[in-house]
Specification:
Helix content is 6%, strand content 51%. The chain is built from one helix and ten strands; from the N terminus they run E-E-E-E-E-E-E-E-E-E-H.
């Protein structure tokens, strides 16, 4: 079962920290999956990649211990990357790198929703968002970061320069 360009566009989840656009040329590139082993369960429309999995597409690089690609009816496919942690890297059109990591990265294609679960972290330059769960709606460019409520909190760190740029951009 070949991966489509959408399966590796997990990187869009990183846009929550800023309003920059993902590098559009990435999505015109082929997806390459490199792993120690691969299993295909054709009756279940499922492919599993194991052992130091590396997915690349343009500037996108995803590292995981395991990646499961599920093909569901009516195009609601999903990709689940797990690791200690699973990581994502992409260079945006503005030239800034973005990094994300979590125990699990889940991308639901139909809903265009990316969910980071378990020690979720998203960074761009020195700006950072941490939480137990970070959800990013790609089409709406909306992000929700949540804590588990068990003494944990969502933490966001902005650099003073970034705050100044944000304030200037919001003024007429």
């Amino acid at each position: 079962m070949p991966l489509t360009l959408s399966h590796a566009s997990l990187g869009l989840l990183l846009l929550l920290a800023v309003s920059a656009q993902a590098k559009e040329s990435d999505y015109q590139q082929p997806v390459t999956v490199d792993s120690g082993s691969q299993q295909a369960e054709l009756n279940e429309n499922k492919a599993t990649f194991l052992q130091d999995v590396v997915i690349t597409q343009g500037s996108i690089i995803i590292h995981a211990d395991k990646v499961v690609v599920l093909r569901h009816a009516k195009g609601d496919d999903e990709m689940i990357a797990t690791g200690r942690p699973a990581t994502f890297f992409q260079i945006l059109d503005n030239g800034k790198p973005v990094n994300a990591s979590a125990s699990e990265l889940r991308y639901q294609l139909k809903d265009r929703l990316v969910t980071l679960t378990g020690k979720a972290e998203l960074k761009q330059n020195d700006n950072q968002v941490n939480g137990d769960v970070i959800r990013y709606d790609i089409q709406k460019q909306q992000m929700i970061a949540q804590s588990s409520g068990k003494g944990s909190r969502v933490k966001t760190i902005f650099l003073p320069q970034e705050i100044d740029e944000f304030n200037k951009a919001g003024k007429p």
